[in-house]
Amino acid sequence: CASYLCIMFIHKKRHRSGAYSIEVLRKDRCSRKNVTVKIIGTSSNAQELLALERKAREFIDSQLGQPIPMDYHYPFEDDLESFLSGISNTQIQVIGPELIYGRLYDKIGYGGIDNEMFRHLVICRLFNPGSKLRTVEYLRQYLNKDYDVEAIYKFLDNLCFRKDKDCKKDASDKVIKPVGNDIKHDVERISYAYTKKICGGEISVVFYDMTTLYFEAAQEDDLRKTGFSKDGKHSCPQIFLGLLVTTGGNPIGYGIYEGNIHEGKTLVPMIKDLAGRHGFDHPVVIADAGLLSKKNIEDLEAEKYEYILGARVKSETAEVKEAILGMNLEDGDVRCIDKANGVRLIVSMSDKRAAKDEAMRKKGLQRLEKRFQTGKLTKANVNNRGYNKYLKMDGDVSVTIDMDKFNADAAWDGIKGYVTNTKLSDAEVISNYSNLWFIERAFRMNKGDLRARPIYHRLHNRIEAHICICFTAYTIMLELERELKDANSDITLYQAGRLTKTMYQLNYKMPNSHRTKSVILQMDSKQKDLYDIVLQNDAKR
Fold first, then answer.
1. What is the CA radius of gyration of the chain?
2. Which residues pair with 250 in a beta bridge?
3. Residues facing residue 201 across a β-bridge
4. β-strands 307-311, 284-287: how paired?
């Protein structure tokens, strides 16, 4: 035959598995039979088949020295075009959240919680945080999971057992728990086991802090109370969230409290509760100055806990304050004052912290002067909180700004204090206390990335369920960050979240066998890097 097209051509061969091979065949002139020249490759992916076809064309070009005419008809293209034209949007599924977050969910151990809805709610919180109505829409649109919103609310009602007061006794005095899943305790048990594994099997130090989560509502109840808001939402009802973590911010457990509770009352009870349930011994307890009180110190010492607490140096006795200022501390200096019963007050000086303290003082003064000049100061402003302490009342009506007090406070700029009963060195105490930023970051991640607040739920059970879901999602987020760091990857948590949103899977039926199959569509280089990191760490389990 004069035309090489009668000699060499591309053939698509179908296998029993449903995959296709792209081959280059040559028609033997003598036997008139087709002879295989080269097998280019095999795939069941439509995009990969097109790529293999292009390679086959390039191979023929290289062998014959001239291109194949563009109008040449390839026998399998009609089948491929027919197949592709039948694909609908409903067959394309976002698979990234399950590939990345789902694998981490299982790796940590949450896969042992036999509840598909809980899994989806946690992964949604990581991938697409929002209201439960928005979650239902996401599940339907992207995961082909059709949940009724009322079914989700019913699930939330039973996700956590409430306190012992919700348990009743039957005629034989046997305790009957309310119907529920008790997933909260399972979550804390699994989280603690994984945290302990990461920490080498021992919990030697714990960090405790509290934050507020506000509600978009006006009504109060037994749990939701107005109080001092760390979010600046003083008119909104709120709850307090107590969080206990260890080094690196790895979670141990959490507690939910009324919005007007004094946070100092929660420290020891929560640690004892979690220690009793998880069985850890007596780690060093670290908390900021908000938890410093005589009662907390007495309770910690009575339970034989060692502690490192932030000190309020300006609230010390006149003798101690005079001793601190008499040290004339310079940048990097650390001094120790021995107190009673083996307790030490350690003070340090930092020029960087001094500059920040000065800037905050001046900013507070400017804000106070502005309100003072407008005449909008009220009786509520005259207290000893924040920068209002610089206000001075003369008689019953005259209010001025006490600049002497403002200037005297400059002597304390940059000075930080720590109260401890440990045997650690001064430097070790400061080093351990500095790790409190992990728990502060945990709150930022929950409030920002996971949008734990504002809370729109009203019922107690649903509020607890919402916090449980956020706690689980935070643990997964922390594990992803750890794996990215171990792999020396430049992918951030924010970037990882965005990458998962464009990882797709195609669900289709084979045209002849009608078998349903799924294939993950090709990822870009960053998505592939992220997927490989999680996959490799998953394989190490």
1. 32
2. none
3. none
4. parallel
When pLDDT is averaged across residues 192-208 and rounded to a whole number, the result is 90
Widest pairwise Cα distance in the chain: 120
- Asked if residue 69 lies in contact with residue 57, where contact means CB atoms within 8 angstroms, the answer is no
**Minimal CA–CA distance to 115: which of 195, 168, 194, 190?**
190
Q: Which residues contact 179 (CB under 8 A, 6 or more apart)?
A: 158
Q: Does residue 39 contact residue 21 with C-beta atoms inside 8 Å?
A: yes
- Distance, CA of 298 to CA of 294 (rounded, Å): 6
Which of 267, 270, 269, 276 has its CA nearest to residue 254?
270
Residues 210 and 263 sit within 8 Å (Cβ to Cβ): yes
Q: Could you report the per-residue pLDDT of 455-479, keeping only the tens digit for each?
A: 666 677 888 888 899 899 999 999 9
Structure tokens that stand for 508 in this block: 């289709």
CA–CA gap between residue 193 and residue 109 (Å, rounded): 9
Structure tokens at 101: 């977050």
pLDDT for residue 452 = 66
Interatomic CA distance for residues 130 and 124, integer angstroms:
8
**Higher-pLDDT residue of 404, 525:** 525
Q: Examine the pLDDT at 523 and tell me if it is beyond 70.
A: yes
How far is it, in rounded angstroms, from Cα 463 to Cα 456? Answer: 9
Q: What is the DSSP code (8-state) at residue 234? A: T
What is the structure's pLDDT at 455? 67
Angle between helices 493-500 and 116-127 (to 10 degrees): 120
Dump pLDDT digits (tens) for 329-371. 999 999 999 988 889 999 999 999 999 999 998 888 888 777 7
